[in-house]
Design brief:
mainly alpha, Arc Repressor Mutant, subunit A, three-stranded antiparallel beta sheet, 11 helices, 3 strands
């Protein structure tokens, strides 16, 4: 079993789960796939921005990461998913609506919340139907480390060699150092990792006093002279 490296720092998306789930529902769940699918439902629906939040069986069965995590019979991940959803519906965590003339793949699922109950009731009474414009299906993806996003947003495209260098830097330097060094690179228009790395190495070898962003902007010229001059293209 691969060991989890830990949650990323900085800005990251948080999924809202009602506290009542932990007190009233979680102690009752005795099936691992049901637990996984229930947590997935909280995550999936929290991503949506439409007034009516739901997912269909067809939408979530397309998520290969979710299906691979279920413990059903080999070669039958969709059956494991259907079973887990049915368990969640019987428990009352999710609400299911089968639309007239539609297949089981088109079955809709809502969280059993006031908003979800209203949408479920409206769908059963034919007062609401999905338009297909409520939002694209969400897929589980491994969240990329913040340092990768920081690099791509400020320096340039990520290559395998740079990715390895960034991983090594995260092990050596505090995350705020890396952010500030990238900021200096942007301020000085030297968008190269070797330059960022030179700044970090200098701070580690010579020490770095606590500074704020105003100080960094004020002192940025120091990082275009001396040992740093060779990185600056004139």
């Amino acid at each position: 079993m691969a060991q989890f490296a830990g949650f990323a720092g900085g800005k990251t998306h948080l999924t809202r789960i009602p506290a009542q789930f932990f007190s009233d529902v979680l102690p009752q769940i005795d099936h691992l796939d049901e637990l996984k699918v229930t947590l997935y439902a909280f995550w999936y629906l929290d991503q949506l921005e439409s007034p009516v939040r739901y997912f269909s069986f067809a939408q979530i069965k397309s998520d290969a990461t979710l299906l691979a995590s279920l413990s059903g019979q080999p070669g039958a991940p969709e059956s494991a998913l259907a079973d887990a959803l049915e368990r969640a519906v019987r428990r009352g965590t999710l609400l299911r609506a089968d639309l007239p003339g539609r297949s089981a793949d088109d079955a809709l699922f809502f969280l059993n919340t006031p908003r979800g109950r209203a949408a479920h009731k409206a769908s059963l009474e034919g007062k609401w139907r999905p338009t297909g414009e409520e939002g694209a299906p969400q897929l589980l993806e491994h969240e990329r480390p913040n340092v990768f996003r920081l690099y791509e947003e400020n320096i340039g495209p990520l290559t395998p060699l740079v990715a390895d260098a960034l991983k090594d830097a995260e092990k050596i330097y505090p995350s705020d150092w890396i952010e500030d060094a990238v900021r200096l690179a942007v301020l000085n228009n030297v968008r190269r990792w070797v330059y960022v790395e030179a700044i970090l190495r200098s701070w580690k070898e010579k020490g770095r006093h606590e500074t704020n962003r105003r100080d960094i902007e004020k002192d940025r010229q120091k990082y275009t002279q001396g040992d740093f001059a060779r990185f600056v293209r004139r």
